[in-house]
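Exercise 3.2. Students should predict the tertiary structure of the chain below and write it as structure tokens, then compare their answer with the key that follows.

Predict this chain's 3D structure.
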Amino acid sequence: MSRAGARGESGADCDVVVVGGGPAGLAAAVRLASGGLAVTLVDEQPELGGQYYRRPSPAVLRDHGDHRPEGGRLIGRVRELGVRCLTGHLVWGVADDGRTLLATGPVGEPVVLRGRYVVVATGAYERSHPFPGWQLPGVTTPGFAQHLAAADGAAIGDRVLVAGSGPFLLPVACSLLDRGVTVVGVAEAGHPYRPSARSLAALRHLGRLGELTRYAARLARARVPVWQGHVVLRADGEDRVSSVTLAATAAPTRPVRALEVDAVCVGYGFRPQTELARLLGCEVRCDPVTGDAEPVTDAFGRGGRPGVYVVGEAAGIGGVHLARNRGTTAAAHILAREARSRPGPTPPAPREIVRLAAARRRLAAFTALTADLYPGPGELQDVLAPALPGETMACRCEAVTVADVRSAAAGRAGGDLNATKARTRAGMGPCQGRFCGYAVAGLIRHATEHDPSGGSAPEQVFTARQPVRPVDVETLLALAEPEPAEAEEGRR
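Answer key:
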């Protein structure tokens, strides 16, 4: 790490490093570059766009067109403005100076990045919750199925169940239908589509209501049932999932419906991806509604460390429109700070920031409505975690069972998330807890909630450690190699 630290002290490579090429990162890069700053945009995927604006393959683009053309236009604008785009680069850590970013290039070469500002736009993970059989081939998340259908033009299976909770399930089911898949049903854990006094608030968001109506109409034309108040009880099969059993959310251990399938897509929304923000020293707090660990930011996205901003879904789940707003807001604030630092009279507060704040309040109101209509993740966890059989895999990477986690949490781990990780290896596999971490935290909470010695509520995320993703040992060794001048000085 010393080599990276020394490079970082020599000066910034650019004005702003933006980590993440999704909606928030792209929006920030466009605004920063149009304001005259030198911007480096880093993303681990081979193409910009993130998950939401993921670019279709050439064959899909030719046969079906661009499913999200606004993403293509945004990416084109980024390149027109001369933003330095480092695709295929994984930012996996932070050097000892707390500012220099450590990355790996497409062929494993070490890359060191430093900007006067850092904008973290790392996006989100899909929220998973275990159930018996979720380790079977053919069981995946809705986002992965959506990626295959929209970007690659491939279907996850022939007969597919889409299940979990959240508004994302409906467009995923429609994307599968567009690829000729038989969607056997959509199982929604809550009752968001039941008429109620709360749902009337959707009339204040006619654009979003129109989207929902189009998805619902598409499913109705295909005669796809939407079962509200249902969750996946278990998946069964030999070499691949062949059937799935549903239960009522209110009674998650009692089977109510069995379906023949060859694929199951289960997800309960999204969680902020905060590892890099935490490595940069940003404070996080537990959201009381979702249970997610979210970075503590101000209205402009500042993460509590000088020059560090956290934007988009990494700052809290709110959808693509809010993500873009957050990215643009952070960029506008950086440009305003730069303007104030120049000689001459202090410029007035930009009207742009005021307009963005007003738009953000409207978008936040829709986010709050969505959270009100769908069951909260913590609420679902309270129902699903106690009902899991002990032999269920809690951590698929390390084959750690629910019983293993409960036993460790109630025993010598003492309800501590990281101690349970150390004793069971849950969260130590290739995914580093991105899939199992939330469920493991819930299992620990339920295993110790009646223990009077349990103390305060357990952490909701594993401690951020680097590398945040697997990195070749050769990359780490290359970072430790001295510069030629340093090596010559050492020989003297």
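Discussion points: The chain has a mean pLDDT of 87. Residues 351-373 form the longest helix (23 residues).
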